[in-house]
Amino acid sequence: VQLQASGGGLVQAGDSLRLSCVVSDPASGRTFGTYSTGWFRQVPGKEREIVASITWPRNIKYYADPVKGRFTISRDKAKNTVDLQMNNLIPEDTAVYFCAARAHMRTEYEYWGPGTLVTVSS
């Protein structure tokens, strides 16, 4: 299983970004939409923290308090991606964002992708 995150970049405070995460089989390239997926972020010198998550198959969503009301996690069934829409970004959102996936009934995230950098300037 391979994860790939995309969509990071440099924006100004108040702007929006949309991150996408795709889970795939590296051998065949087939993508999967049947994993619970979480978005995490990490700032140098600090621990990685969860930002938002969505379960499979019930699509139960979770948001960390700092992003509630600004970020939205969703599942695009057509593309087999899990997207994180980030609105009203603030400098404190600056971090490397990672997506992670876990199989149904698993409690720990098993698969991690390389991060994508989000930088919010004031």
Can you give a write-up of this model?
The chain contains no helices and 12 strands. By secondary structure, the chain is mostly beta strands. The strands form 2 sheets. Strands 2, 5, 6, 7, 10, 11 and 12 form a 7-stranded mixed β-sheet that branches. Strands 1, 3, 4, 8 and 9 form a 5-stranded antiparallel β-sheet that branches. The termini are far apart.
What is shown here, in short?
The chain has strands at 2-6, 9-12, 17-24, 31-32, 36-42, 49-54, 61-63, 71-76, 81-86, 95-102, 111-112, 116-121. The chain is mainly beta. The strands form two sheets. Strands 2, 5, 6, 7, 10, 11 and 12 form a seven-stranded mixed beta sheet that branches. Strands 1, 3, 4, 8 and 9 form a five-stranded antiparallel beta sheet that branches.
**Gyration radius, in Å:** 14 Å
The averaged pLDDT comes out at 95
Structural class: mainly beta
Low-confidence stretches: none
Shape: globular
Tally of individual helices: 0
Question: For this entry, what is the oligomeric state of its chains?
Answer: single chain
Distance between the termini: 37 Å
